[in-house]
Amino acid sequence: MEDLIAALPDGRVLTDPDVTESYARDRTFVPPGRPLGVVLAESRDEVVTTMRWATEHRVPVVPRGAGTGLAGGATATDGCLILSLARMTRIRELSPQDEIAVAEPGVITADLDRAAREHGLMYAPDPSSYEVSTIGGNLATNAGGLRCVKYGVTRDSTLGLEVVLADGRIINTGRRTVKGVTGYDLTGLFVGSEGTLGVITAATLRLRRAPAELATVAAEFTSLRDAASAVSAIIAAGCNPSLLELMDRTTLEAIDEWKNIGLEPGTRAMLIAQSEGSADQMAKLCEAASFVAVSSSPEEADELIGLRRLAYQAKERLGQCLVEDVCVPRSVLPDMISTIEDVAARHGVKIATVAHAGDGNTHPVFIFERGLAEPPPEVWAAADEVFRAALALGGTLTGEHGVGVIKRRWLGLETGPVVTEIHQGIKQVFDPLNILNPGKAI
Amino acid sequence: MEDLIAALPDGRVLTDPDVTESYARDRTFVPPGRPLGVVLAESRDEVVTTMRWATEHRVPVVPRGAGTGLAGGATATDGCLILSLARMTRIRELSPQDEIAVAEPGVITADLDRAAREHGLMYAPDPSSYEVSTIGGNLATNAGGLRCVKYGVTRDSTLGLEVVLADGRIINTGRRTVKGVTGYDLTGLFVGSEGTLGVITAATLRLRRAPAELATVAAEFTSLRDAASAVSAIIAAGCNPSLLELMDRTTLEAIDEWKNIGLEPGTRAMLIAQSEGSADQMAKLCEAASFVAVSSSPEEADELIGLRRLAYQAKERLGQCLVEDVCVPRSVLPDMISTIEDVAARHGVKIATVAHAGDGNTHPVFIFERGLAEPPPEVWAAADEVFRAALALGGTLTGEHGVGVIKRRWLGLETGPVVTEIHQGIKQVFDPLNILNPGKAI
């Protein structure tokens, strides 16, 4: 460690265990190991220095943004070095003409969005955590969000990357153009690789024209399945929503207890939908709703969507959370929702569900007692059933949170042994010493 | 070869050199080698049989669709086996609810689009060749097209793949859902890999809602640079065109000679633009035009766009063609266009340019004498300058055609030595015996 401390500017390396501990976790219960130290990198060259040192000394490196991950991907392991990119906060370039930005990994997602808005543009991907999460973390997990239903996920907005490899070499992948097919798609490969293939030190990101006017629908339902069916109907009718979110009763109660939203006793679910132009057709397709309101006020919309973004924090007030992330084809969303309700009842587990419903991406949050080191057996049993049901419905284990450590146990069910072998082979190409976030993602 | 003939159903293997020769080329001048034979595979299992045999006997395999490639990617090499997927033409599934189709590689691109239209949907990627090119070829090159400016390229429409590996093992990558982050993005890696990593035997493709009404603008300019500047203005104003094409005088003359379109003597360039709803703002931004017409008639639009799609065939009437494919950031399209004009003049080379201008993707077509085995030195010199200019402008060597064999000479200029090493490492993971389309793409 002395070599590393000497090689970097003063103040970049933290080794006091009381301090480093606060960098060792993400937002999950996953118990961290004890790191050797934390590097607070401020530039690409400091990342290079760090990775060269790590390669020389065979020290595992856990890259990290804001630590808002929900799969354990940024959890420290014993004897690792934590490499925080949170101080690399420069937006190196923002070109309104070409509708691109070049951002460093520590830029807060919403800050990039705000910078783009000054030019009538937006950065579309918006995970619920986007006021605190970083571009680097979003790239690591290929983060989704509320606007993905129309604009796609982080990978869809990523044109090129600057990456420091495990041995400290620098590569540039991709391009600044909207199209390009030179060589294999390394950009897409790094996005979603959860820090196991390289350390991203800058990303060329696509911006999009910000929509001028959005109409918002809020609809309450006395049955969760009815709400899910309305989602399927809205998609099937081709309404092209720019946001389509679902919250179940347990979620609404958690928000109500905290923010007092005046939840009606019979309400079992709420849908929030948004689209450019008129939202009348979507409102009409919520025919089973007990209450429907359409608004074109941006303030009302922000308030409503703000409540949705608080859902996870509201649930954390109820206990510890295992936040899950299954995604199914949109036509079978009602079946997935029914299965989750059924699993909760049979296992006696409290599950609060929110969904990026327009994507078929459901977040069942399994709530368990505070103080427990990890979820109790009935929660794992319930989660196992939910995962298997999602796969049986043609879905996937994780729509946007990543595999991290939490879902590695189930990974083989989705990918199979040959793909597992290919994953390991690719990992070996980029990181032959296995020092980049070992034990995660694959 | 006897083993292979015995292992496959009757009629699947062609060995007569007079017959196999017609499968040995793509649409380029690249001189083919002499193949051992051609397999006309009709199913995934026949592909498996073929690849097992190729692995056992260390025979290079050149996968092939309709042979409309423009980079030499499907050119036969001496002693190779050509594996045609053109007979695998089943659309295995088309789900209007989930807006996906599962198509085999031999499906003609426009046929898939037509099948989707029956449900109010479309398959968006539409290379100019889409009435004859196949989904498999489109996937191999990550093909673009006219509608990409709004809907993205082939990779953006690909959710999952069924792939036969070099040794005959089968994997499924990706998903049926619109989101998913389980494991590395192998789907994106196979798309655009030009048959060097595996043989795609089915693809789960995203369909999109077909637009209800499109308005079309046609504008003529007395200067090519003015037309390119109008493109930049249209993009910068956020018009969100669903098509934005540019043709230069040489292209228009070639079409005029063939189809007699009544080309005005002073016209140096034509823009065709389309958007949902109104096209008035785009028409207004063509302020430097000598003639502008706006139409909402689908028949007129089809006729106009049909002429654009004929551009390449029209140029083939003038001589042999080296069709290039540089893509630059959209703000510098006028500079790229001026450079191409300047290079043509200085080298005394006839270059006819069309562009998917809304993407900054330019196709300068270098026309040279029929009968020559390959482009003469001045054509290569001119092309070299165009490639280097595109890179200097922040662009890429190939927007949508792929590297094939033609652009391998320049590849290192764009990717650099470390990326080249990574490409080779990835190739080794998938194809350790180097039997899949060796000598292409990377």
TrEMBL record, chains A, B:
Gene Ontology molecular function: FAD binding; oxidoreductase activity
Keywords recorded for this protein, A-Z: FAD, Flavoprotein, Oxidoreductase
InterPro entries according to UniProt: FAD-bd_oxidored_4_C, FAD-bd_PCMH, FAD-bd_PCMH-like_sf, FAD-bd_PCMH_sub2, FAD-linked_Oxase-like_C, FAD-linked_OxidoTrans_Type4, Oxid_FAD_bind_N, Vanillyl_alc_oxidase_C-sub2
Record carries keyword Transmembrane: no
Xref: SUPFAM superfamilies: FAD-binding/transporter-associated domain-like (SSF56176), FAD-linked oxidases, C-terminal domain (SSF55103)
PROSITE patterns in the cross-refs: FAD_PCMH
Superkingdom in the source lineage: Bacteria
Listed cofactors: FAD
Lineage: Bacteria, Bacillati, Actinomycetota, Actinomycetes, Streptosporangiales
Sequence similarity: Belongs to the FAD-binding oxidoreductase/transferase type 4 family.
Domain FAD-binding PCMH-type: 31-210
Protein name: FAD-linked oxidase
